[in-house]
């Protein structure tokens, strides 16, 4: 492991009851990198994200965040150490306003300047500007996803974890969201991204890992992965 990694897992294994789901997974994200984890339905992508965020206890292995071993920490402590998870299914608070949902992400910030920081996020996600005082529950799926990303960003995390951000979104929304994610990458935000739509993730990430049945079967730059037959095999479930 290179010392400067923002997040690095070592032989990370996890499961549900006796069923192993992740086996000895080693994933690393360096500062300013956007890294994609690819794999079919059920390959273990969400379990990996949840384990890194402290929402699922690993059976074995270690997780390091900015040189600190966070393996045994609870989710709130990991968030405090600088990790923000944008969970699968967005999980916004439907009864709260868009503004209050965003501010929920900042509850640890002592130096928050709510006015200018929310303005900056609304420039990034203009669709949210018209709806800032509405209940989050009335937003479309794409708008809720943008809100969930904004809520993650306002924490000013060392790393942003995005679990299936394109899931269930209309194609135009997916494009808009991915354009915003590409901007974040260009600005040097460190991102670990899981998406079932491999071509999308490969188009914007710097590097990728392919998970198959809970194991990393191949990894490399996205340029190299684009031509790798292991990608197709992983999605077709061919071992
Ligand atoms: P998906 O895109 O479908 O979420 P994934 O790659 O994210 O796929 P996981 O959600 O991590 O995969 O699931 C990996 C395996 O773990 C699957 O076989 C799934 O059925 C199983 N699994 C996930 N969550 C649980 C749970 N809470 N209890 C039992 N088994 C689970």
UniProtKB/TrEMBL annotation:
<comment type="similarity">
    <text>Belongs to the ABC transporter superfamily.</text>
</comment>
<protein>
    <submittedName>
        <fullName>ATP-binding cassette domain-containing protein</fullName>
    </submittedName>
</protein>
<feature type="domain" description="ABC transporter">
    <location>
        <begin position="1"/>
        <end position="238"/>
    </location>
</feature>
């Amino acid at each position: 492991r290179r010392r400067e990694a923002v997040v690095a897992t070592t032989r990370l294994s996890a499961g549900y009851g006796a069923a192993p789901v992740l086996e000895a997974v080693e994933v690393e994200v360096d500062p300013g990198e956007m890294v994609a984890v690819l794999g079919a339905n059920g390959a273990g992508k969400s379990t990996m994200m949840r384990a890194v965020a402290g929402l699922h206890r690993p059976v074995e292995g270690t997780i390091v965040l900015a040189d600190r071993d966070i393996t045994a920490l609870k989710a709130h402590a990991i968030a405090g150490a600088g990790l923000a998870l944008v969970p699968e299914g967005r999980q916004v608070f439907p009864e709260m306003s868009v503004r209050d949902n965003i501010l929920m992400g900042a509850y640890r910030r002592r130096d928050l300047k709510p006015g200018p920081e929310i303005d900056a996020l609304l420039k990034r996600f203009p669709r949210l500007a018209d709806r800032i005082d509405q209940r989050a529950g009335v937003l479309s799926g794409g708008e809720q996803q943008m809100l969930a990303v904004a809520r993650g960003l306002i924490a000013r995390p060392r790393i942003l974890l995005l679990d299936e951000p394109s899931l269930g979104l209309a194609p135009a929304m997916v494009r808009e969201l991915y354009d915003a994610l590409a901007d974040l990458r260009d600005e040097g935000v460190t991102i670990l991204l899981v998406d079932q739509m491999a071509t999308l993730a490969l188009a914007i990430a710097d590097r990728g890992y392919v998970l198959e049945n809970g194991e990393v079967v191949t990894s490399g730059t996205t340029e190299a992965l684009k031509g790798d037959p292991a990608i197709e095999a992983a999605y077709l479930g061919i071992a």
